[in-house]
Amino acid sequence: MRDLEELQQVRDPSVLRWHPELAETLVALGHLDQAQSLLDDTRRTATDLGRDAVLPSLERTQALLDAARGDYGTAARRLNDAADRLHDLPLERGRTLLALSHTERRGRRRASARTAAQSAIDLFTAHQAHPWAQTAAHTLSRLEAAPTDNNARPRLTSAEQRCAELAAAGASNRDIATALTVSVKTVEATLTRVYRKLGLHSRFQLAHAVTPARE
Predict the structure, then answer these.
(1) How many H helices and E strands in the chain?
(2) What is the pLDDT of residues 28-59, one digit of tens each?
(3) Phi first, then psi: what are they for 50, rounded to 5°?
(4) pTM of the predicted protein model
(5) What SMART domains does its record include (predicted)?
(6) C-alpha neighbours within 13 Å on the C-beta side of residue 145
(7) 82-122 residue pLDDT tens
(8) In this structure, how many other beta carbons lie within 10 angstroms of the beta carbon of residue 151?
(9) What domains, with CATH codes, occur in the chain?
(10) Residues 6 or more apart in contact with residue 15 via CB below 8 angstroms
């Protein structure tokens, strides 16, 4: 994309916003100097052209770069600031909150990491960004896992297990009620107990925690 834009003499980073994505990939691959150079160039061009809407996504990637260098405090501050500026772009805000969760976890601030992950889940779910919601739910489930050696999990009753399996497979509460020959209110109460026992907050998390039954 960069080569194509250079051939077409496109300088505006708001036309095709590949810059933070490439920089984030470079960070993941450990090419920190290349990532920093790209971010610096893009930020300078965006500022010169008055494209302020590009800057929060660049700040998210800059924060990931800070975290890769071990500066988790600066990274968290950048991510919080970027999230505050992304209210009109909910999916970008969700991605930023998810990055904040990872950063806070690495900085050993698990409570803040859980809060950020849950906020990301809520945003992704509200906007039906299901793969992102599943990723955020997986992040939250890891944060909420009890730090024990045996990783013991609370036991579910047979009714709770079956209800959880059907929900994890994607069945609605009404479908579950029909399959188990119970009321919808009974299903709701049963799932509430399952969530509480397993420390879960959504069906996305349940899908990762419970293996759906095979017919």
Answers:
(1) 12, 0
(2) 888 999 999 999 999 999 999 999 888 988 99
(3) 70, 30
(4) 0.62
(5) HTH_LUXR (SM00421)
(6) 16
(7) 999 888 889 999 999 999 999 998 888 888 999 999 999 99
(8) 8
(9) 2-144 (1.25.40.10), 158-209 (1.10.10.10)
(10) 5
Q: For residue 131, what are the contacts with CB-CB under 8 A and spacing of at least 6? A: none
Distance CA(43)–CA(54), nearest Å, equals 8
* Side-chain half-sphere CA neighbours of 73 within 13 A: 0
- In the block, residue with structure tokens 């739910």: 137
Is residue 193 classed as helix, strand or coil in its secondary structure? helix
Q: Residues 6 or more apart from 116 whose CB is under 8 A from it?
A: 97, 98, 100, 101, 104
Give the residue from 151, 152, 177 showing the smallest Cα distance to 166.
Answer: 177
- Whole-number Cα distances in Å, 109 to 70, 74, 75, 95: 14, 14, 13, 19
Contact assessment for residue 11 and residue 49, using Cβ atoms and an 8 Å cutoff: yes
* Burial (CB count within 10 angstroms: exposed 0-12, middle 13-18, buried 19+), residue 108: exposed
Specify the 3-state DSSP secondary structure of 55: helix
Q: Where are the alpha helices (DSSP H) in 19-157?
A: 19-28, 32-49, 55-68, 72-84, 90-106, 110-126, 130-144
Q: What are the tokens at 10?
A: 């496109």
Select from 91, 95, 61, 94 the least CA-distant residue to 78.
Answer: 61
